[in-house]
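User: Sequence for Alkaline phosphatase below. Tokens please.
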Amino acid sequence: MFLNSKWGKMTIAGSILTTTLFSTSHPTLASAGGQAPDSQNTNNSEAIAMGNTKNPKNVIFLIGDGMGPSFNTAYRYYADNPKTKEMDKTAFDNYLKGTMRVHNDDDKENITDSAAAGTALSTGKKTFNGAIGVDNNKQAQKTVLEQAKESGKSTGLVSTAEITDATPAAYAAHVDDRDKKDEIAKQFYNDKINGQHKVDVLLGGGSKYFGKENGNLDKKFKKDGYDVVSNKNELANSKSDQVLGLFAEENMPLQIDAPKKNPMLADMQQSALNKLEKNNNGFFLMVEGASIDKTAHANDVTGVMSEMDGFNKAFENAMSYAENRDDTLVIATADHSTGGMTIDSGEEYKWNPDAIHKMKKSGAHMTEQIAKGEDVEKVIKNGYGFDVKSKQIDKIKDEADKLKDVKDKAKNEDDPKIEKQQGKLQDAIQKPINDKSRTGWTTYGHTGEDVNTYAYGPGSDFLEGNVDNTDQPKNLFDFFSSDVTSS
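Assistant: Structure tokens for Alkaline phosphatase:
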């Protein structure tokens, strides 16, 4: 099921420039070098094993959007080698630091959305659902990315969603409604710090917000020295230290469905690192595995495991970078959980990830194809790696016919009845794999449980235990304002 954005329209008087932002001092561990009380006697080999305890010069901040604790556990089952008796650890497991509280500050809803959560992670301020980089008074709040830029560092945003989507937007834009994506894109270009564009590397989807219908922002970026690229090869051949990579009109395809011309999340992250590390003052890079959330909203377990795999590869890539240095902090966490996924949905106490491994396409992809009028049996055969019962095929055909009927009667393509029926179609398409894998779901929305935090490198000690999502940026602000350089 797909969810419409529900945030009401509000206004902020005038455009908000980053030069008007107010900085705030935060009591943190960073001023003490991020050291635990007993870390003074740690020898060099132990420091390398545990992560350097000095303030970081570089920060790689990975966000698995919607990646609640059950997703991390399910991925461990999914990635495990079934030929060995012991369950293998994932790349994340050795770096678990603690858990993080993710509630918002909203009078009507106490479960966060990605906008409020992204703003908490980027500014250290709780706010209302739908808010991007503003507090409850709709006043702009300085972000850690903006502080990094002020400190002379290079900056980057990478996402598998539209680069104007809630999470990346929360680091470099200030609007009261996450749906103001044209304005978010304009702020990416127009707002400058010390005369420079605030984000050096922008990689993701959302080309529709940078074209002629929104002032030809892509051409303006190119005129200012950015490489503007649209596929994996162009990104690999990019020579400029600044790049705008737009690989889809809207969200990027899921990893399992993506054409070979598309870069994966780890590819985009590596390209960003290659460019950002040239700055001797260091960098801040936010990397979002956005479609963990988007597939979980639709209860698409195939898509979820596909995107978890992509996020795991990005984390491995970040760790490979950081473990060869003593100046880079890597943090991986989630903004919230989505879907209420359960590992097993029946009485047999058994979850079957092997069924998911056999899948050839996501539920989202098959839904899109059938909604366009493609033959149901052909799409299911090409997407599923096991036989689907004829009764389930008939149910999918029935929902597809209902969708066609709704479309024929609708006045326009924005009719909410279309989206509602398309959700029912996707539920029918995904029922065979949810049943076969024994995956359960409790909602099409977000859930409010604490999420896991994984970290390595200088300053990672501040994440130990149970922390609030606003604690993370408060420490990063202190790290960046200290103007730390590597030894």
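The longest helix spans residues 301-322.
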